[in-house]
Amino acid sequence: MSTFSAPKGTYDLLPPDSATFLAVREAIAAPLRRSGYGYVETPGFEHVELFSRGVGQSTDIVTKEMYTLTTKGGTDLALRPEGTASVLRAALQANLHRAGNLPVKLWYSGTYYRYERPQAGRYRHFSQVGAEAIGAEDPALDAELVILAADAYRALGLSGVRLLLNSLGDRECRPAYRAALQDFLRGLDLDEETRARIEINPLRVLDDKRPDVQRQLDGAPLLVDHLCESCKEYHERVRELLTAAGVAFTDDPRLVRGLDYYTRTTFEFVHDGLGSQSAVGGGGRYDGLSELIGGPPLPSVGWALGVDRTVLALRAEGVELPVPAGTDVFAVPLGEEARRTLFGVVTELRRAGVAADFAYGGRSAKASMKAANRSGARFAVVAGERDLAEGVVQVKDLDSGEQAPVALDGLAAELAARLSGGAADA
Ligand code: ATP
Ligand code: MG
Q: Is the CB of 280 under 6 A from ligand 1?
């Protein structure tokens, strides 16, 4: 182990790639901001019980993937493995559900921690942007969230994202289905751990990714065939609204989510260019979660989209996001007096909203011009004693190579105008 390498399963976001990550987070958040979702931020760690109850004792997340720790004060904490339980906890703690209209609509962006086997698209530290609509049961709300996610992927320029849709039923119809599924599963040839899971949370067995298990699940009873009338009706409304909004989906009667608390609408966004880590995002309705963590009944729906895998999907499709230029103007002083003057110009440019940088380190003119070119700037501002004596600087267009003197007085406004495509003759 080297002090200078990141822990296994993690990676650093560095320029220039980090700009893509920011752009993805922003693109996922934009539709939410336009739709009444307010930003929420919760701690990176919570009491362990929040997740063991809220995510579920029988999930991989809780049994295998959670980073837990005991503080010096003896409190058992876990690094957050997901966002929903924390966001609902925060909303309940602040009584947001009593303060105003329901649903309470919140969005978040953060990093999450799961002790997983690291591989392409699967990390121990990863990023999600998520959204939760708390305290309302309305097919239009489920549809809204799915549409907002689909719109985010579309705005990013992704064309290979597919939506899988299912209903997990509710308290009425799920118990009978659960029993039927258990009967079926008990007859299969499964390992001990999976057999134990049949008794605790049989739906999760359907989510088993091992091919030999999947093969045996071929004839498993499906929830669609067991949905009660109200669940059927609800699901049909969601499907109609998605279709009306032009959001294509595939009914996937085998889709269950890794988390215990999902009811009714369940969905996953997958991308076929990502190998076995194909899920770029997912979510659904979780009508029972609030009560599970000690709150009042608050039917809710939400999703979390994986930022890392979305970036991989962009790469797989060869989509380059238009990331804003880091630097528009690069200042190259020739001599001490010019350093002082141009440093002032750079400050002024920045205050005027122009991205500007400066040749630091007192290097040669040649090295400084090289830095200007490498910076990606549109213009270099070059000045020596003689220019300054004449009250001008040389402005070089780094695309065309053209160079001309521009008056120092009003320089920032002039450059700002040129960059915004304005006229402004020198
Ligand atoms: P998977 O089935 O791939 O393990 P999951 O069902 O555990 O995914 P969720 O808990 O629903 O995933 O999280 C939502 C999204 O977060 C996923 O669709 C994925 O894009 C991303 N994600 C989950 N776990 C990881 C991870 N370990 N590394 C990178 N991204 C992840
Ligand atoms: Mg997982």
A: yes
